[in-house]
């Protein structure tokens, strides 16, 4: 099969704060900004990967979600319990400095991992865990 990842989804509770972080701090480009039935979806992506997009969506964006399900999702997001994504970067330390300067919640400072990468971690404004890894240079 010829498969490629096209989109992944990250729940956010404030799209404007998320845009400031993903666009202005991380340097991702905004590809789409759509409102529908009182909800908003913003699609961002790296200029280096035009075929891969991250959709910043409301928690429990499923129209069939019950009010209880939506509340549970909002609570999990507030606790930072929803998964985020892992980015790669050629310079983990420089990225760390930039994101830390913005004031993001630091989860892990840059460190060399026993499995061969150098990485760091932050939480985005909604509490999602984001990791940034630098592969060893050959």
Automatic annotation (TrEMBL):
Transmembrane segments: none annotated. SUPFAM superfamilies: Glyoxalase/Bleomycin resistance protein/Dihydroxybiphenyl dioxygenase. Residues 4-135 form the VOC domain. It comes from the Bacteria. Gene3D superfamilies: 2,3-Dihydroxybiphenyl 1,2-Dioxygenase, domain 1. GO terms for molecular function: lyase activity; metal ion binding; methylmalonyl-CoA epimerase activity. Pfam families: Glyoxalase (PF00903). InterPro entries: Glyas_Bleomycin-R_OHBP_Dase (IPR029068), Glyas_Fos-R_dOase_dom (IPR004360), MMCE/EMCE_epimerase (IPR051785), VOC_core (IPR037523). Keywords: Lyase, Metal-binding. GO terms for biological process: L-methylmalonyl-CoA metabolic process. PANTHER family: METHYLMALONYL-COA EPIMERASE, RING-CLEAVING DIOXYGENASE-RELATED. This is Lyase.
């Amino acid at each position: 099969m010829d498969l490629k990842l096209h989109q992944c989804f990250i729940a956010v509770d404030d799209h404007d704060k998320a845009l400031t972080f993903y666009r202005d701090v991380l340097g991702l480009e905004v590809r789409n900004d759509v409102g529908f039935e009182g909800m908003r979806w913003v699609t961002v992506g790296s200029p280096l990967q035009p075929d891969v997009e991250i959709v910043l969506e409301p928690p429990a964006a499923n129209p069939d979600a019950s009010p209880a399900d939506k509340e549970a999702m909002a609570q999990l997001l507030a606790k930072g319990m929803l998964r985020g994504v892992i980015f790669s970067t050629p310079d983990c330390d420089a990225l760390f400095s930039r994101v830390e300067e913005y004031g993001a919640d630091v989860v892990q400072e840059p460190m060399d991992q026993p499995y061969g990468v150098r990485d760091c971690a932050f939480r985005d404004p909604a509490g999602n865990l984001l990791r940034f890894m630098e592969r060893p240079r050959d």
